[in-house]
Amino acid sequence: MQRKQSFSAGGILGLMVLLTLTALAQEPLSDTAAWAATLRYRVVPNITYLVANNYEAKLDVYQPPNPGTATPTVVFIHGGGWVGGTKESAVLNILPYLEMGWAVVNVEYRLAKVSLAPAAVEDCRCALRWVMRNAKEYNFDVNKLVVTGHSAGGHLALTTGMLPAAAGLERQCYGTEELKVAAIVNWYGITDVNDLLDDSPNVKSYAVQWLGSLPNRAEVAKRVSPLQYVRKDLPPILTIHGDADPTVPYSHATRLHDALNKAGVTNQLLTIPGGKHGGFTKDEYLKAYATIRAFLKKHGLAK
Question: How many CB atoms lie within 10 A of CB 106?
Answer without folding.
Answer: 24
